[in-house]
Write a structure and sequence with these properties.
mainly beta, 9-stranded mixed beta sheet, 26 strands, 11-stranded mixed beta sheet, globular, single chain
């Protein structure tokens, strides 16, 4: 049975505290402890919708670790008075293909009253799917998020942003024990790390903008998943930053391994991703079952063990 879905559709609550630029700080008793910067409330099925003030008007951006570039739609950029016309001088990658984009650099961007560092927005001539009745003006991408440590706890409807610690490996403010996984920072601003899927070694990165995890069709063929098996699976229609609608097949796998943890019978969308830094995008469906700390500064993923 076919059903329409998209990577960005979710019910999202409001931002609890503002996002601010990482700032220098005096030495403390624990230099390895990151400092809490922002707490976001997230619905059980969603990703965070961050409200920023640009040129005195509200802009609603999805916090999306899978997006390389912080992005505005052309409609939003015009509404916010950032441009009257622009040239599509660059190309952005996305699920479903590439899209031409221009760039703008707002003079003032604030979140909750605090000034953010100067950001360059890619302006794309597309319409992003709304969140409920709220229009989505763009994506808050990895170019900005890479300045923070992310505590992703979708199971408790939260994402927390921390300033990095002064140590090569942070001391996490968790009471639970956890495992470390070394990652690699790719040229696409993704922190990729090793996983196993049905006994095969693959590479993944965290994509908070994806409601369902996606795996490249080429990787599934190596796992022995046949075209006939995929043809029997339900179809999933998705749209990313490009206007093209992509069809994936929802396939049930046996075991997904992250560090020493194992998820049984995960369902993932199978489609040609054409990525050069990962085989799999780990979306909200997996993140709701795992608490994960994403440390851009130390190039590590920390995975909480079950309570």
């Amino acid at each position: 049975m076919n059903r329409r879905s998209c990577l960005f559709a979710a019910l999202v609550c409001a931002l609890v505290s503002c996002i601010g630029a990482p700032q220098a700080r005096a030495a403390t008793a624990d230099e390895c402890a990151p400092r809490l910067r922002s707490v976001l409330n997230v619905s059980p099925t969603g990703v965070p919708l961050v409200t920023l003030t640009i040129n005195g008007a509200a802009a609603h951006l999805l916090l999306d670790t899978g997006a390389e570039q912080t992005t505005l739609t052309e409609v939003a950029a015009r509404r916010l008075g950032l441009l009257t016309d622009f040239d599509h001088t660059r190309t952005m990658r996305g699920v479903g293909g590439n899209v031409s984009a221009g760039t703008v650099e707002p003079d003032l961007v604030t979140g909750g009253g605090r000034k953010l560092p100067g950001l360059t927005f890619a302006v794309v001539p597309v319409t992003l799917p709304p969140v409920g009745e709220q229009a989505v003006d763009g994506l808050l991408g990895a170019d900005m998020l890479g300045a923070y440590e992310l505590d992703i706890d979708l199971g408790h409807h939260l994402i927390k942003l921390y300033d990095p610690s002064n140590c090569s490996v942070p001391t996490l403010p968790w009471r639970r024990t956890y495992d470390e996984v070394d990652g690699q920072y790719s040229r696409h601003k993704h922190l990729a790390f090793p996983i196993t899927l049905d006994g095969h070694k693959l590479t993944a990165f965290i994509d908070t903008g994806a409601q369902i995890s996606l795996i490249d069709a080429g990787a599934t063929s190596k796992l022995g998943v046949t075209d006939a098996a995929l043809a029997a699976d339900d179809a999933l229609l998705m749209q990313g930053v490009s206007t093209q609608v992509v069809t994936a097949r929802e396939h049930r796998f046996g075991k997904l391994g992250i560090a020493d943890g194992v998820l049984l019978s995960p369902v993932m969308g199978v489609t040609p991703l054409r990525l050069d830094d990962a085989d799999l995008l780990m979306g909200a469906d997996v993140l709701r079952r795992q608490r994960i700390w994403l440390s851009y500064a130390s190039r590590r993923i920390f995975v909480a063990r079950p309570e």
